[in-house]
Design goal:
The structure is a single chain. This protein is an alpha/beta fold. Helix content is 34%, strand content 16%. The protein has 23 helices and 21 strands. The strands form four sheets. Strands 1-7-8-6-5-3-4 form a seven-stranded parallel sheet, sandwiched between helices. It has a six-stranded parallel sheet with strand order 12-11-10-13-14-15, with helices on both faces. A six-stranded parallel sheet has the order 17-16-18-19-21-20, sandwiched between helices. The longest helix is centred in the middle third of the chain and has 17 residues. The N terminus and C terminus are likely disordered.
Length: 618
C-alpha cells in the first residue's frame, strides 16, 4: 500500500537498486551503528538527547567519536523526548532523541504523543532486540512500532544494516515536510552490529508521500471574495502558521484587510500581541474579545488551525453566523470538526502569499471590506473586558503578578516554556509574545512535566537566548531531574515554580464544580481539613532539591522582593536557576468557558457574564 501524507503504519524497508551511473559516490565500509551516526551527521542533526541501554548500546560507541553530533545524557527518557521537542520548536529543525528498547522506548510514548498532537518534527530512534528474538518476549522487548502507530506520522522497523542510512534520511524528510510530526525508527540490535556500506545521499523511496503545498487558485480567489464581502471577519490563526514560517505573510494579509486576528495557544507569537489588530487568544480560557469575535463573526478564515474543542466549546453552537475558509497542509483536518465553505489544502506560507495577491486584486477592482461597525464592537469588548487579576487581600504573592513581572523583566527574545495548568494559562495571558518561536507549550496533549526538559532542549538549540520555564509545583515534580542534566551540560535555563501547594487547575474545577471538595489535589503534606496546605510546609523543599541538582535556587514569598529576585535570576548564566514562588492558593484562571458549554456562556470572572447587548445578535 502506498504511504499517504499522514500514514502511521510500520514500514519495513525493502532492498533497492542504486541509480545507475552514480557509482562515483564515496562508499565507506562500516557497521550499522556507524551508518546510523554518519546518517545523523549528514542530515544535520547536531544535538541528540538520549540515554543508553543494551539494545541501543552499539550506536553509542561510534557516537563517542563523532565531532558533529552532540549527545546530551538525560536522566529519564521522557526528558529526552520533551527536550527534542523543545529544541525543534525553538530552532525550527528536527528534534532527535535516542533510547534503548522496552521501557526505554515506552518512556518515549508520552513525548511522542505530545509531538504528534502539536505537529512537532521529531525523530525518535529506539533500540530493539535482535531480529530473531522479535516476538519472543525477549528481555526488554516491546513492540514500540505497534504501540506508537496511532501517535506517529510514520514509523519504521529496521532489521538490516544496509537499510539504516536511507531509513534515517526518509524519517527526517517525513518528519519535517507536509504537516510536521514525529517519526520513530526502531532498529534491531543485530542490524547495528552487522557490517554494511555507507554512501550519501541515499535514494528516498516514499511512494504516495507527496504533501500538497501549493493551494488551488480558484479556492484562493473564492476566499478573497468572501473576505472583502464580509462585515465581521476574523483571522483564526493556529500553530501551522508558525510551522510554515509564515508570520511575515500573516502580518501583510492582516494589515491589508484590516481584519481582527486571534492566535491560538499554539500560535502565540505568530502575530505580535501588541499589534492593534490582535484581539487575543481564543478558547476555554481565552480573552473575552477573541472568544466573542469568533462567536459573532460572519466569516472565519482558519489558517493552520484545527477547530479543537478547547477553541470551539460546544461544537454545534460555535460561530453560528460564520462562513468558514479553512486552510491547512493536512487535508484530514479540513471538515473534521467544522464544515468548510472554502477548503484550501496547502502550506500556510503559500496560502497567505496567494491570499495577499488575491485580496489586492479584489481591492484593485474596487471591492474592499468595510469593518467599521465590527471594530466598534470589538474595541468596546476589548475596553470593557480586558485581561486582569486581583491581588490577594492577605498581601501574599499573586501568581499572575509573578508571571507578568518575569515577562516584563526578561531580555528581548526570551523563550518561555510552560508546563500545563493554571500557570500555563497565566503565562499565555500575562507575557507579551512579539516574536515567533518564543512560546513553547504542550497544547494538544496537555503534558504535565513538559516545561523543564523542553526549556532544556530550547536552550541547547538556542544557547544565546534566555530561556525561562514557567512551571507549577505539580508539573515540576514530574521531570525536575533534568535540572541535573542542565547543570552538568552547561545549559543554564531559568525555572519559575509557581508554587500554590496544589494541582491548581484541578483544584479550580473542584472549587467551581465539586462543591470545594478537594480530593487528592493538595501536594504538600500537613494539609488541614479544608484542603489548604498547612503554612510553612515544604515537602519537598524545592530550594534544597534544586541546589542538590547543581542549581542556584531562591525562594520568594514577599511581593516586595519580586523584581529583585527575578533580576538576580536573569543575571546568573553559569548554571540553572530555580525560583520557588510561594503564591496564593485560591487564584483562578479567568476568563473561562466551562467544558461542554457554549462559547456564548463565557465568564469574564467568577459569576461575571459579559453583556454584549442585543445589537450584535443580528
Amino acid at each position: 500500500m502506498p504511504m499517504t501524507e499522514q500514514a502511521t503504519g510500520a514500514h519495513h524497508p525493502q532492498p533497492r537498486a542504486r541509480n545507475g551511473g552514480q557509482s562515483s559516490v564515496a562508499v565507506e565500509h562500516v557497521t550499522g551503528a556507524q551508518s546510523l551516526i554518519r546518517s545523523l551527521e549528514e542530515v544535520g542533526a547536531d544535538t541528540v538527547f538520549g540515554l543508553p541501554g543494551g539494545c541501543i548500546l552499539p550506536a553509542y560507541d561510534p557516537l563517542m567519536d563523532s565531532t558533529r553530533v552532540r549527545h546530551i545524557l538525560v536522566r529519564h527518557e521522557q526528558g529526552a523526548g520533551h527536550a527534542a521537542t523543545g529544541y525543534a520548536q525553538a530552532t525550527g529543525k528536527v528534534g532527535v532523541c535516542m533510547v534503548t528498547s522496552g521501557p526505554g522506548a515506552t518512556n518515549l510514548v508520552t513525548p511522542i504523543a505530545d509531538a504528534h498532537m502539536d505537529s512537532v518534527p521529531l525523530v525518535a530512534i529506539t533500540g530493539q532486540v535482535a531480529s530473531k528474538a522479535i516476538g519472543t518476549d525477549a528481555f526488554q522487548e516491546a513492540d514500540i512500532c505497534g504501540i506508537t502507530m496511532p501517535i506517529t506520522k510514520h514509523n519504521f522497523l529496521v532489521t538490516r544494516a544496509e537499510d539504516i542510512a536511507h531509513t534515517i534520511a526518509e524519517a527526517f524528510h517525513i518528519a519535517s515536510t507536509g504537516r510536521p510530526g514525529p517519526v520513530l525508527v526502531d532498529i534491531a540490535k543485530d542490524a547495528l552490529q552487522a557490517r554494511t556500506t555507507f554512501s550519501w545521499p541515499p535514494t528516498l523511496d516514499l511512494p504516495g508521500y507527496r504533501p500538497v503545498t501549493k493551494p488551488h487558485a480558484k479556492q484562493i480567489r473564492e476566499a478573497a471574495k468572501l473576505i472583502t464581502q464580509a462585515k465581521r471577519p476574523v483571522l483564526y490563526v493556529g500553530g501551522g502558521v508558525l510551522k510554515a514560517g509564515a508570520t511575515a505573510e500573516l502580518k501583510v494579509l492582516a494589515e491589508l484587510t484590516g481584519a481582527p486576528v486571534t492566535t491560538t495557544l499554539m500560535a502565540l507569537g505568530a502575530f505580535p500581541d501588541s499589534h492593534p489588530l490582535h484581539v487575543g487568544m481564543p478558547g476555554m480560557h481565552g480573552a473575552v474579545t477573541a472568544v466573542t469575535a469568533l462567536q459573532k463573526a460572519d466569516l472565519i478564515v482558519a489558517l493552520g488551525a484545527r477547530f479543537d474543542d478547547r477553541v470551539t466549546g460546544k461544537l454545534d453552537s460555535f460561530a453560528p453566523y460564520a462562513k468558514i475558509v479553512h486552510a491547512d497542509i493536512d487535508p484530514a483536518e479540513i471538515g473534521k470538526n467544522r464544515t468548510a465553505d472554502v477548503p484550501i489544502v496547502g502550506d500556510a506560507r503559500e496560502v497567505l502569499a496567494d491570499l495577499v495577491q488575491a485580496v489586492q486584486a479584489e481591492h484593485t477592482e474596487g471591492h474592499t471590506g468595510d469593518y467599521t461597525a465590527w471594530w466598534k464592537d470589538l474595541n468596546r469588548w476589548r475596553e470593557t473586558y480586558p485581561l486582569g487579576y486581583d491581588l490577594p487581600e492577605d498581601g501574599s504573592l499573586s501568581p499572575q503578578q509573578v508571571i507578568q513581572r518575569i515577562g516584563k523583566l526578561a531580555p528581548e527574545g526570551t523563550i518561555f516554556a510552560a508546563g500545563v495548568g493554571q500557570h500555563q494559562m497565566w503565562a499565555s495571558h500575562f507575557i507579551d509574545y512579539e516574536q515567533p518561536a518564543t512560546w513553547l507549550n504542550s497544547g494538544g496533549a496537555g503534558t504535565m512535566g513538559y516545561a523543564v526538559p523542553a526549556a532544556m532542549g530550547a536552550k541547547a538549540g538556542m544557547p544565546d537566548r534566555t530561556v525561562w520555564a514557567i512551571d507549577g509545583d505539580g508539573c515540576f515534580q514530574m521531570t525536575n531531574q533534568e535540572l541535573t542534566t542542565c547543570a552538568l551540560n552547561n545549559i543554564p535555563i531559568k525555572v519559575a515554580v509557581i508554587n500554590n501547594g496544589a494541582l491548581g487547575m484541578v483544584r479550580q474545577w473542584q472549587t467551581l464544580f465539586y462543591n470545594q471538595r478537594y480530593s487528592n489535589t493538595v501536594l504538600h503534606s500537613g494539609a488541614d481539613t479544608d484542603g489548604v496546605p498547612a503554612k510553612g510546609t515544604r515537602v519537598p523543599d524545592f530550594v534544597k532539591l534544586s541546589e542538590a541538582m547543581g542549581c542556584y535556587a531562591i525562594r520568594c514569598e514577599d511581593p516586595a522582593d519580586l523584581d529583585k529576585v527575578i533580576e538576580e535570576a536573569n543575571s546568573i548564566n553559569d548554571r540553572p536557576v530555580v525560583i520557588d514562588f510561594i503564591v496564593h492558593e485560591d487564584a483562578m484562571v479567568w476568563p473561562m468557558v466551562a467544558a461542554g458549554t457554549s462559547n456564548d456562556e463565557v465568564q469574564a470572572a467568577r459569576g461575571v457574564r459579559p453583556d454584549f447587548g442585543d445589537n450584535e445578535d443580528d
